Amino acid sequence: MEYISTRGQAPVLNFEQATLNGLADDGGLYLPVSWPTLSQGEIHQLQGKPYSELAFSIIRHFTCDCVPDSTLKKLVHDACTGFRHDAVAPIKQLDNQLFLMELFHGPTLAFKDYALQILGQLFQYFLSRRGRTCTIIGATSGDTGSAAIAGLRGLSSVELFMLHPHNRVSDVQRRQMTTVIADNIHNIAVDGTFDDCQNMVKSLFTDLDFKNKHALSAVNSINWARIAAQVVYYFRAAIALGAPEREISFSVPTGNFGNVLAGYVAKKMGLPIRKLIIGSNQNDILTRFFESGSMERRDVQTTLSPSMDIGISSNFERYLFELVDHDSDRLHGLMQEFQEKGRFDVGRDMLNRARKDFSAYRLTDEDTRKDIRKTYEATGEIIDPHSIIGVSAARKEGFKEAPVVVLATAHPAKFPDAIKSALGFEPPLPDELSEILTLEERCRNNLPNDVSTLRKFVESSLASGNSSKK
Ligand SMILES: *Cc1c(COP(=O)(O)O)cnc(C)c1O
């Protein structure tokens, strides 16, 4: 399987190279040159399989000859041992036609674990067989950082530097990062905002000498392997509810368009998905696009669902590539326009095509609280402020003969303040979380909002790490 960049100017790679590279050199995103497909019979054979076997069967369509079957089976199995529920991604029925798939049984209680546990295994495998190491640098506003740390902790081939804005992530989110004691994990609290953190990371990546010298790599949501791992749970839910004979819709609380894109990929692979329903918070660039055909950047607002507080949905570029029929020049033009003017328009025809796959709704903070309350009163379920946006979007869309599965992306205990403002009480803490509230925090490296200080910090940490390994 070959991987190509959406912008058509970067070299064609295999799965291993695309995974280790993350972003393409031309600024585009890698995706498979064609979608692998499963026949109805093949989908049938996946019925009743445990999650790790299902994950193996799906992911091997993307890894192809980069990972031997027996190795992939083991890597996926090891990744799944980090989950606390035997079903890995259990499904609950909320209503006659409405289901909730709980994607918060991983180590950090949010859905990003489902990709990052597997990504960590893949990085370690690819690097150790080449006898190489790499340095991963990332910025987080909360959930990504802890999931990356949980996925990469203790790996001998990877050093991870994770920047978060000092005093601007929640206590739980910070502790999920800073209580991890592992030599290859470096937490950095930056005196600045999340955007400052991201800009510091970006400047290190544009410093090509630095990038090559330390083999910089990224595990953010534009990494293709993360999307591939997320395709698995769409198959899981649809098959449990009657696929391939029965059509299923999904409702997905979305920011960067990564999670819902994995649903689109599942559909292209042959899973009978009727509709992919997008739920936005007030940062509704996607919902506005599906209303008007115009992608327009606006300032980011702080909401009750912070993991969806984004100004730009970077993974949308992969779907846009589909919409322009793989015409890289056209896509390049649209992205350039967006860069220069902060917007682009696709026109009626393309919008109508996009609306066959997706519909989109938004939810204000006020309605988020109201819907958390309504759902709690009707079902007894405490639903986190991200997932409730999926529940609400599903109800707005209506059921039209196909059942809808909402992806529950976080455990409510990760967002106690939001739940308290909706229900008047805090959600009970699962054991994992009460534990980290008492563990000692380590590595609270406070750095100013300054790239050269960061560069020096990374270099000296790597140097002392290397000398202690010798
Ligand atoms: C990251 C995240 C999202 C958004 O996921 P995308 O892939 O960016 O659409 C939604 N909910 C939670 C809890 C998250 O951590």
Please sum up the structure shown.
The chain is of the alpha/beta class.
Give short descriptive properties of this protein:
470 residues, six-stranded mixed beta sheet, binds pyridoxal-5'-phosphate
List the helices and strands and how they pair.
Blueprint: E1 3-5, H1 15-21, E2 30-32, H2 40-44, H3 51-63, H4 69-80, E3 91-93, E4 98-102, H5 112-130, E5 134-139, H6 143-152, E6 158-165, H7 171-178, E7 185-190, H8 194-206, H9 208-213, E8 216-217, H10 224-240, E9 248-253, H11 258-268, E10 273-280, H12 285-292, E11 294-296, H13 316-323, H14 328-341, E12 343-345, H15 348-357, E13 358-362, H16 365-379, H17 387-397, E14 404-408, H18 416-423, H19 431-436, E15 445-447, H20 451-469
Parallel strand pairs: 4-14, 5-6, 5-8, 6-7, 7-15, 9-10, 9-14, 10-13
Antiparallel strand pairs: 1-2, 3-4, 11-12
Helix pairs in contact: 3-4, 3-10, 4-5, 5-6, 5-10, 6-7, 10-11, 16-18
The structure holds pyridoxal-5'-phosphate (PLP).
Write up what this structure looks like:
This protein is of the alpha/beta class and 470 residues long. It is built from 20 helices and 15 strands. The radius of gyration is 21 Å and the shape is globular. The strands form 4 sheets. It has a 6-stranded mixed sheet with strand order 3-4-14-9-10-13, sandwiched between helices. The protein has a 5-stranded parallel sheet with strand order 8-5-6-7-15, sandwiched between helices. The model has no long low-confidence stretch (mean pLDDT 94). Helix 3 (51-63) packs across helix 10 (224-240) and helix 4 (69-80) packs across helix 5. It has helices spanning 15-21, 40-44, 51-63, 69-80, 112-130, 143-152, 171-178, 194-206, 208-213, 224-240, 258-268, 285-292, 316-323, 328-341, 348-357, 365-379, 387-397, 416-423, 431-436, 451-469; strands spanning 3-5, 30-32, 91-93, 98-102, 134-139, 158-165, 185-190, 216-217, 248-253, 273-280, 294-296, 343-345, 358-362, 404-408, 445-447. Residues 110, 112, 143, 221, 253-259, 307-308, 386, 409-410 line the site of pyridoxal-5'-phosphate (PLP).
